[in-house]
Amino acid sequence: MVIDKNEKILRTEGLKKYFGEVKAVDNVNLEVSEGEILSIIGPNGSGKTTLLNLISNMIEPDSGKVFFYGRDVTKWAPSKLAKMGLVRSFQIVNLFDGMTVMENLKAAVASNLGRIHRPFSSLNKDEEITKRSLEILELFKLSDKAETLAGDVPHGDRKVLDVALCFALNPKLILLDEPTSGVSTSEKKPVMQRIEEAVRKERVTAVIVEHDMDIVFGYSNRVVAMHEGKILAEGKPEDIKENEQVRKIVTGEL
Amino acid sequence: MKTKYIIALIIGLLLASVLPLVIPKYYTYVLSVTICFAIYALGYNILFGRTGLLSFGHALYLGIGAYTVAALMRPELGPYRIFSMELLLLAAIVTSAIVGLGVGALCIRYTRIFFGLINLGFVMVWHALLLKLYHITGGTDGLPVYIPSTLGITLPYETFRTFSFYYYVLAVFLIVTYVMWRIYNSPFGLALKAIRENGVRAEFIGIPVGRYRLAAYVISAIYGGIGGALWAPLSGQVSPDVSTWLTSGDVVMMNILGGMFNFAGPIVGAFLFYNLKIQIMHFTTYWSFILGLSAIFFVLVFPGGIMGWLSTKMKKFYGQKA
Q1: CA triplet A94, A111, B45: central angle to 5 degrees?
Q2: What is the pLDDT of residues A114-150, one digit of tens each?
Q3: How many helices (H) does chain B have, and how many strands (E)?
Q4: Smaller CB count within 10 Å for chain B: N or C?
Q5: Does any domain span residue B5?
């Protein structure tokens, strides 16, 4: 794909998705610039995950469009989006549980390197796949779990692996859906740190969905607050933190 | 470790080549038929054990292969009759691939039980067609299959089914097993495994799941076709019995008995299942009762199949992952 650097890496235009009466995502126009880390916050049910699902084409919008580097990708299959560099992680861990951590990564790397359509070449002798998989393994500090089945590693590591799979795809834009959900409070910070390090090191643009403001404030360049399917406010983390409306609705403070 | 495998392979090959010289003729025939089923089961497993799609109608392809061979040998074809086994195999590969592509394109839109049942529907339709289009298919009687030439040589009729063709079947088996081994250990094979484990995530890591399911389906169809094509000359006659829900169920059984998550599982399963069936049939007419009981026994005692059980034992013994 030819990348037009003048275009926003991601832009949505009037995205809309209703579930019956519920306006899950209601006319959302979002812009993401290359290189930024954008956090989308909001209470449960505010439409954050649905927005991510629409962008990644997990579900189809009722109306509206998604542009990736200016190109309309609204109807692209997730596999095609992944090929082009738009990838996502999942709130509820979504791994290949019966495969080892290393195999999980190798599948993603092989896919990214365009190797999966080779039915007769040897996977283990493919040094490029192995090398890149080991790099990712190290980047996310999963090396000691390489040969363990993904279904058998602790939850925190599973969350990290879920994100690591995205990085194995050599992404340009990564959508992270609550990367620390279900992780114990004491582990949240270290998990987030591992992810943030990777984002900086790989120079990836990231959109992070999180309902816990404190987790993301330290890491984001910009924050978007959502409420009832609409964008409530957006701006620098410190401004959003001071925003009365956001404090009331998102953090429940009065 | 690698040399161990090679030594085991050489011993196995020697044993397989010497066997027909020592065992009774009838058993050489049984062994050849077993190998045909092993090819069928091995192919089935790339769909079932590897990609996670359970089909209840895979005997369609066994039938396509067998009937392709019989149809191309029909006297009505006059000078165009084909007797070369290599050409017949090629034809069976082509027909099963074409049918697999068409039927598969419809089936892979569904997964789980729906996938299984649509396939069952197709084998039932095919079975009915074989019965009713008797001008072409010979109806219930089926079609005769003559002795093909192998590598351009027409072998003597007397020993063909009980001796010489065994080596041909064995050679084809070794080739297709090697090809399947390569597929299992390729990045493509890993992609299929990822689809089995989690089809949704597979799509999100860039694997076009639908196309890959179809590819696995076509490969398994081709293996079914090869199994059927090799079996036809051994049997001397093809009839609609080859393509039924029963023969479709047999292959599921073979995979489960042998171990669907192990490469050699379907091969071991085919040997076990078919030979068990033959032996039990020899001493009782209630063979399906006994076969059913033994199937229940094996599934309860070896939930991962024989090979699954063996490989965990081996891992424990060597204290490492094999």
Answers
A1: 75
A2: 989 888 888 888 899 999 999 999 888 889 998 999 9
A3: 15, 2
A4: N
A5: no
- Kindly report the nearest CA distance between residue B43 and chain A, in angstroms: 14
CB contact under 8 A, B182 and A122: yes
ipTM associated with this complex: 0.89
**Domains of chain A and CATH, by start:** 10-249 (3.40.50.300)
Q: Do A116 and B190 touch (CB under 8 A)?
A: yes
Query: Please, what is the average pLDDT of chain A?
Result: 87
Q: What is the pTM of this model?
A: 0.90
Are B194 and A99 an interchain contact pair (Cβ–Cβ within 8 Å)?
A: yes
Token output for B212: 């890959």
Residue B208 lies in a domain: yes
Tell me phi and psi for residue A115, to 5 degrees. Answer: -90, -20
**C-beta of residue A37 within 8 angstroms of C-beta of residue A201:** no
- The confidence score (pLDDT) of residue B182 equals 94
Whether residue B15 lies inside any domain: the answer is: no
B203 vs A contacts (CB less than 8 Å): 77-79
Helix or strand holding residue A87 (H, E) = strand A86-88
The DSSP-derived string for A199-217 is HHHTT-EEEEEES-HHHHH
Nearest to A110 among B190, B198, B201 (CB): B190
**Residue B47, domain CATH:** 1.10.3470
How many domains, chain B? 1
Q: Digits of tens for pLDDT over chain A (254 positions)?
A: 556 667 888 999 889 888 888 888 888 888 898 889 899 988 888 888 899 999 999 999 999 899 999 889 999 999 999 999 999 999 888 999 999 999 999 999 999 999 898 888 888 888 999 999 999 998 888 899 989 999 999 888 898 899 999 999 999 999 999 888 877 888 888 888 888 888 888 888 999 998 777 777 778 888 888 888 888 888 888 888 787 777 777 766 54
Task: Judge contact between A153 and A137, C-beta under 8 A.
Answer: no
Mark yes or no for CB contact A94/B209 under 8 Å. Answer: no
Residue B1 in any domain: the answer is no
